[in-house]
Amino acid sequence: MGIVNEDNITDVVTESLGKHGDITDRQREIMTSLIKHMHGFIKDVKLQHSEFLEACSYLERAGKLCNENRQEFILLADIIGAEVLVDMMTNPVEGNASESTVLGPFYRENPPVLPKGASTIQKHYDNEETAYYEGYIRDEDGNGIAGVTMDVWEDAPNGIYENLDPDQPEYNLRGRFETDENGHYAFVAVRPVPYPIPEDETAGELLHFMGHHPNRPGHMHFIISKDGFRPLISQIYDADSDWLENDSVFAVKESLIGKFKPAPEGLGTDLHLEYDFVLQADERAIAAE
Ligand code: BEZ
Ligand code: FE
Question: Which of ligand 1's atoms lies nearest the C-alpha of 83?
Answer without folding.
Answer: 6
